[in-house]
Design brief:
This protein is α+β, with helices and mostly antiparallel strands. It has one domain: Putative excisionased domain DUF1233 (Multidrug-efflux Transporter Regulator, Chain: A, Domain 2, Orthogonal Bundle), CATH 1.10.1660.60. Helices cover 37% and strands 14% of the residues. The chain has a 3-stranded antiparallel β-sheet. A hairpin with a 2-residue loop joins strand 2 and strand 3. Helix 1 packs across helix 2. The radius of gyration is 20 Å and the shape is elongated.
Length: 76
């Protein structure tokens, strides 16, 4: 297979490195059904970079507002 076909894909190890997570975590996410979509070729798994970017965007959440850290003193 010509490797240019895979130029838009990364393997498990490369994706884990790019995301800054362990390979074990990525595999666990896959088993739980929360990882980016995969493409399987034989025993090898590939992740389309475009799909990973869409997956990351879908996980974006607004930052929670900070709680009011002031404490009120107990009533005497």
């Amino acid at each position: 297979m010509d490797s240019s076909f895979l130029s838009d894909y990364v393997g498990e190890i490369e994706l884990a490195k790019r995301l800054g997570i362990g390979l074990r975590t990525l595999r666990q996410w896959r088993q739980e059904g929360v990882s980016p979509p995969i493409t399987r070729l034989g025993r090898k798994l590939y992740f389309k970079i475009e799909s990973v970017e869409a997956w990351l965007k879908s996980r974006e959440r607004p930052m929670p507002r900070p709680r009011d850290r002031r404490r009120t003193s107990p009533a005497d």
